[in-house]
Each structure stands twice: as structure tokens, then as C-alpha cells.
Write a structure and sequence with these properties.
The complex is a heterodimer of chains A (253) and B (228). Chain A has 253 residues and is mostly helical. Chain A has one domain (33-251). Chain A is 79% helix and 0% strand. Chain B has 228 residues and is mainly alpha-helical. Chain B is globular and about 75 Å long. Chains A and B meet through helix 8, helix 9 and helix 10 of A and helix 4 and helix 5 of B.
Chain lengths: 253, 228
């Protein structure tokens, strides 16, 4: 392209003309993306460019790993027994960092108000946000898990193929409630503090499920079936409640 | 103070006094635990009262989500606060009883842990109410109450399974309660529910008056044309 090299009006105009002809040709053919997809892609693009959430989460999780290694002795057979707890507590703390930022950028230019008056279904917005957070936390987990394996010298004795299942169910359990509670804590003073205060008590059964299932698989002691079923039912119940109540909470004003 | 309220106070105090007499004097001494078991007449009725109040809180919250009336919201905040008070009594009397009987203050048994978690959930509910700004507090609190109540079965199931996997100190009182003891316990529960109802009534009146004051202040500042 030599257009920019010669600062004359002519090539500029042609390039714009090309753009003008190419864009309207594309627009009518591609159907309007659903609100869910559009919001999700917007959030992912924003995150891809800024990398705010993922960087802060990764660093935070790393800090938790290091701090834990001083608090507990992560060597020997004990490591396998406590690693499940350490991993999930680190992920929970790190997830709160991302969850707290979920709605922050939507307030800045009254985007949330625009959403309220628009006809776009509220649940699409919620699911987009929850899926976005789910992806961020999943990326965090994929990056951090090898680090845990290295630092805590872990070796899986039980059926390892169940670990991703537990990861998916557990992450969704944290993220779906977290996204909802982040929307609630938007309307409070000191909202950064509020989110963990209301999220942690409700998440304890899910956290227990993740920790126990992970521990059982790492040590290969018994079957993790009960915990996986518990997590699945927990996900189902709380996703339903979130979807039922989100519109009410979004419109609360 | 109005006469009906005075009568209610007298009745509740009489019920509690009679309950205390029954618990300390009439009830037979336990064969194994001795007199220390008598705390059961405060411990168990408090727990039942707390659970009842949390259930009323859940119903009022659901009602609020559908109807948006200030009465159900006032009931929700009232029952949550007094439920937390009774739940605290349970959590305090529990260790006092556990120490001489089990030899430990606390055990991470299913029932104890579930009660503790329920207490935490409703504390977070009250914190949310305290911290949330603007007029949407009742709505957000009602939503959280639904989450909290839906969480209770998960809490109980998970911890029950968690702890049966790992044996803990044996929990006493697993057997049948003597009919005489059961009657006194039920009677004490009645007295506690009456006390809770009386407290709820005062707290409810307070909440309504607070709402009235807030509305009057808002109206006055509107009329004066300058917000305070």
C-alpha cells in the first residue's frame, strides 16, 4: 500500500470508497448477532485488548500460591491431601477479582441504564457476562494448574479425566452466582468488599464439593460421584434462580 | 404503652418463667448427663425458633418479589434479625453444653456446621441490607434471601456427606427423648416462639416508623426545594 506514503486526496478517497462499498454489501446479509453473542464478543474483545481481568487474576492467584506455600508445608504426601483446597481457594479469590470488574465498565457511560430501557432480554446480558467470566476463570485455571503441579509436586492417583469435569462444574458454580452477586453489590457502598461477603457463604457447599472431589481424585481414595452430582445439581438450581431473578435485579432502581 | 402490648409482655414473661421452672425443677435429671442436659430446653427451642423465623423470612421475601409491598419487606428484615439473634443463642449454648458432655467446645459435625453456615448466610443478608444504598435495598435483599434459603439443603447435604466420610466424636442424644422431657421441650418452644413473636412485633413497629420518618423527611425536603 502506497496510499499513506503520498498524502494526496485522491487515493484516500478511493480507499474510503472501497470501504463504503464493501461494508453495506456485508451488512444486510449477515443477520444481527444475538444480544448474548454480541455482549460476549464485546467483553472478550475488551479483555483481549486491555487484559485487565486476566492479568490481575493471574498475579493474584500466583501470590496466593506463594503465600500458601509459606503457611502450609507443601511437601510429601500431605501436599496431595491439601492441594485440592489450596487450588480452589486460590481460584475462588482470584475469580472474585474478575467478578468485581464484571459490571464496572457498564456503569461508566450509563450502559446499564441503556440496557434497562432497551428491549434486549436481560438474561442474554446475564448469560453473556457469566460466560465471559467463565472463560476468564477457565483460562486462569488452565494456566495455574501446571504451576500447582510443579510447586506442590502433585501426581494424580485417581481417574484424572474427571478433573476437567470438576473444573467446569465448579467454575460455573462460582461464576454464575458471582456474576449475579456482582450485579447486586453494584448498588451498595464499598462494592468491592460486598461481593465476597455475600458470595462466600452461599458458595461454601459448592466449594466443599470442588475441594473434596479434587482431593478424592488426587489421592485416589474413593469415588467422587456424590460430589460431582452435588455440583451439577447446585449449578442447575442456582443458574435457574439467577435467570429467574436477574431481570428484577437489573431493573431495580 | 398500650394495654394489649403490656398484656402480651406479661403473658410472654409468664410463659418463659413457667418454662424455666419446668426445665429446672420439674424435668427429670438425665441418667447419663446429669443436670447439665437441662440446657436442651433452651438450646433446641432456640434452634427451632430460628429456623422458623428464617422460613418466614424466605416466604416474606418471595412475597415481596411478587407484590413489592413494604409490609412484607418489614417482615423480612424483622424475622432475619431476630432469627440471627436466636441462631446466635443456639451457637453459644451449643458449645456450653458440648464441653462437659463431649469434652470439646466445638465439632465440625453436620448439624453444627450447617447452623453456623446458615448464621453466616443471614449475617451476610443483614450486611447487604446495611450497605446497600437507595430504595432498592428490599429488592436486593429479597433476591439474596432466595439464594440463601436455596443454599440450606446443599449446605446440609454436603456437610453431612463430608463428615460421615470422616468419623467425628459421637454426637450424644441420638436416642429417644423421654416423653416428659419432650413435653417440656415443646412447651419451652411455645414460650420461645411467643417471645420471638413479641420481639418481632416491636421490631416491625420500629421498621414501619423508620419508613414513615424517612418518607416525611423526603417529602419535607421536596417541599422546601433543597435537599438536606
Amino acid at each position: 500500500m502506497t496510499i499513506s506514503a503520498t498524502p494526496s486526496a485522491k487515493p484516500d478517497a478511493t480507499s474510503r470508497a472501497v470501504n463504503l462499498t464493501s461494508e453495506p454489501a456485508l451488512r444486510p446479509e449477515s443477520p444481527a448477532p444475538s444480544v448474548l453473542f454480541a455482549t460476549l464478543m464485546k467483553d472478550l474483545r475488551l479483555e483481549w485488548r486491555s487484559k485487565d481481568a486476566i492479568n490481575s487474576m493471574l498475579f493474584f492467584a500466583l501470590l496466593v500460591v506463594v503465600v500458601f506455600s509459606f503457611s502450609f508445608d507443601p511437601t510429601g504426601d500431605d501436599a496431595r491431601r491439601i492441594a485440592g483446597g489450596l487450588i480452589w481457594v486460590a481460584f475462588l479469590f482470584a475469580a472474585v477479582v474478575a467478578l468485581g470488574q464484571t459490571w464496572a465498565r457498564e456503569i461508566r457511560n450509563q450502559v446499564l441504564d441503556a440496557y434497562r430501557v432497551s428491549t434486549a432480554p436481560a438474561n442474554d446480558l446475564f448469560l453473556a457476562k457469566a460466560l465471559g467470566n467463565f472463560l476468564f476463570v477457565s483460562v486462569l485455571e488452565v494456566v495455574m494448574t501446571p504451576l500447582f503441579v510443579v510447586f506442590y509436586n502433585l501426581r494424580v492417583i485417581g481417574p484424572a479425566y474427571l478433573l476437567p469435569v470438576i473444573g467446569l462444574l465448579g467454575t460455573w458454580a462460582l461464576v454464575v452466582n458471582g456474576t449475579f452477586f456482582a450485579a447486586i453489590s453494584l448498588r451498595t457502598r464499598s462494592r468491592e468488599v460486598m461481593l465476597p461477603l455475600i458470595l462466600f457463604p452461599i458458595s461454601i457447599p459448592a466449594l466443599l464439593g470442588m475441594v473434596e472431589a479434587t482431593k478424592i481424585i488426587l489421592t485416589g481414595e474413593s469415588s467422587a460421584k456424590f460430589w460431582i452430582v452435588l455440583l451439577a445439581v447446585y449449578d442447575l438450581v442456582f443458574t435457574t434462580i439467577c435467570l429467574t431473578l436477574f431481570e428484577t435485579v437489573l431493573d431495580a432502581e | 404503652m398500650k394495654t394489649p402490648v403490656l398484656i402480651a409482655i406479661v403473658v410472654v414473661v409468664a410463659l418463659l418463667a413457667f418454662g424455666l421452672y419446668q426445665a429446672l425443677v420439674v424435668a427429670p435429671t438425665d441418667q447419663l448427663q446429669g443436670d447439665v442436659y437441662r440446657i436442651i430446653y433452651y438450646h433446641v427451642p432456640s434452634a427451632w425458633t430460628a429456623f422458623l423465623l428464617f422460613f418466614v423470612n424466605f416466604c416474606a421475601s418471595i412475597w415481596y418479589l411478587f407484590r413489592r409491598d413494604s409490609i412484607s419487606d418489614a417482615i423480612a428484615v424483622t424475622t432475619a434479625e431476630i432469627g440471627v439473634v436466636f441462631c446466635t443463642i443456639v451457637l453459644i449454648t451449643g458449645p456450653i453444653w458440648a464441653r462437659p458432655v463431649w469434652g470439646i467446645w466445638w465439632t465440625w459435625d453436620a448439624r453444627l456446621t450447617s447452623t453456623l453456615l446458615m448464621w453466616l448466610i443471614y449475617i451476610s443478608y443483614l450486611i447487604l441490607r446495611r450497605f446497600s444504598t437507595g430504595g432498592q435495598t428490599p429488592l436486593l435483599a429479597a433476591a439474596l434471601a432466595v439464594f440463601g434459603f436455596a443454599d440450606v439443603p446443599f449446605v446440609y447435604l454436603s456437610i453431612r456427606y463430608f463428615r460421615t466420610q470422616h468419623p467425628q466424636p459421637v454426637i450424644g442424644g441420638g436416642g429417644k427423648l423421654d416423653p416428659g422431657m419432650l413435653h417440656i421441650m415443646l412447651y419451652n418452644w411455645l414460650a420461645f416462639v411467643a417471645l420471638a413473636a413479641l420481639l418481632c412485633w416491636f421490631r416491625y413497629q420500629l421498621e414501619r416508623k423508620q419508613k414513615d420518618v424517612e418518607e416525611t423527611i423526603a417529602l419535607e425536603s421536596l417541599l422546601e426545594g433543597s435537599p438536606r
